[in-house]
Every structure is written in C-alpha cells, then in structure tokens.
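Appendix C. Worked example: M23 family metallopeptidase
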Amino acid sequence: MARSGAVLGVGVIAAVGAGGMATAKDRPPAPISLPDLSPVTDKLPAIDSLVGGSNDVSATASRAPLSQAGLTTDEIAQGADAGEALRARIMRQAEQQQSVAETTERLAAEQAAREKAAEDAAAKKAEAEAAKKKAAEEAERKAAEEAARKAEEERLAKLAASYALPLSSYTLTSSFGESGSMWSSSHTGQDFAAPTGTPVKAVHGGTITEAGWAGSYGYRIILTLDDGTEIWYCHLSSMTVTSGEVTTGDTIGRVGSTGNSSGPHLHLEVRPGGGDPVDPAAWLREHGKSI
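Step 2, the predicted output written as structure tokens:
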C-alpha cells in the first residue's frame, strides 16, 4: 500500500501542476476507493531486499505534502513554498537569459566597433597612400617639366652658339608675307636695311652651292645647310665666298642694292629642302636667334 500511495501522489502532482500543488493543502482530499490488494502485495518481496536498503525516495515522496512537490531538500529544510520556488527559478532563468542577451549584444557591438575602426583605418591608410602617390606624381611631373625646360634651354644655347644673325647691325623693313608693288605676289623673305658694304655672315655652317647674278634678286649667294635648308642672300654689292664650305659667322658677302631694290638692304630667304620659302624670323627664333 505504501507503493500504491506513492504512485497515487505522483499522479495527482502530474494532474494539478506546480501551481495547483501550492494550494492543494487547502482543499479536502477527494474520496478514492481502492480495491484490497493485500493478497497480492503480501506475497511481494520487501523493497528493501530488492534495492539493498530502505526505499527513501518512496518514503520521502509518501511523507512529503503536495505543497513541497518539486522542491529540493535544502528548499524543504528552509520551509520554501513550491510556487515561490518555481517563480524564483523562473526569475533566475530570465535574469540569466537577459544577462546572456546583454553580453551577446555587448560583444556584437564591440566586434562591430572593431570592424568599423579597422575599416576607418584602412580608408585613412588608402587615402594617405593616394595622397602620397599623387604628391609623388606631381613632384615627378614638375621634375620632368623642369628637366624639359633645362634641356630646351641647353638646346637653344647650343643652337645660339651654332647659329648667327646675318648682320650685326640692321633695321628691319619689309617682312615675310607682305604685299606690295615691288613683288609679283607677296614678299618671300625678310629685309634687313643696312649701309652698302656691311658684312653679311653665314647664319650656320654649310656649303656655298650657288653664287652670281639672279635677275631681280641681284647678286645672290645660296648657302645650303646639312639638313638641305637653303639660305638665300640677295641684293648683295659683292660676294666674298662663292663656293665651298663655311662656318657660322663667316663673312660671305656685303650689303648692296642690286637687282629689284629700292635701297641698300639684305633680302634673306629660308627655303627648307630647297622648296617654298618660310618666315625667316620664325626660323631664326627656332634656332635660338631673335631679330
């Protein structure tokens, strides 16, 4: 009968739940009718002989009131109520879950902050590298421009050393491309007015390929440079060199007013490759000489 009572107690606990057990002691027990099982139970061996000791669990369960179901031994010793104990356990579990949630959220926020800091650092590093690269490129560009400028200066200096103006003293008169009654079309050269007999110089080293009378050009000398450019010296009063090689600055003739001329001057023409004439002033500037 002790074992039957324990089973009955467990059944009642399962039926009413923990909350119901908290108030079960306030209700009168329901009448239960059980058959007489003594003929069967008297023949069963004692539980102590089966488990090697007294049935403490069954005894405790049969002795414990329903209001103490589900309590630990310490809770029973402290006189705890089953409902209050359950509520306390639920509260502790909720607090633990809240703590875990807060910790998870804090760790996630810290991880996000670390990732954001890493992204910002990477962005700043990339920006600094880009600025450094841009500064280096700008410095390289300026250095290249400076080098090009110096190279051009050196080139012009060399040209200036290897080229010369046709006259040391002169006055510019008719320019390239001008129109007038003196020419059949436009003016094909640059006029340098100077007194008759003023020395005329080779503008660059080359070879005298022609010298003599040339109709409206008067006395003319053609100096051919190494690149094929022809320099025409016209209206000369005399020709000092009529053939052979000359160097920059050599006197090759003298200013005059022969041919179709209105007064003593040098008519200078520049013909690249022996072709059509170009502006002598621009050509001289390209070679480091300005007039």
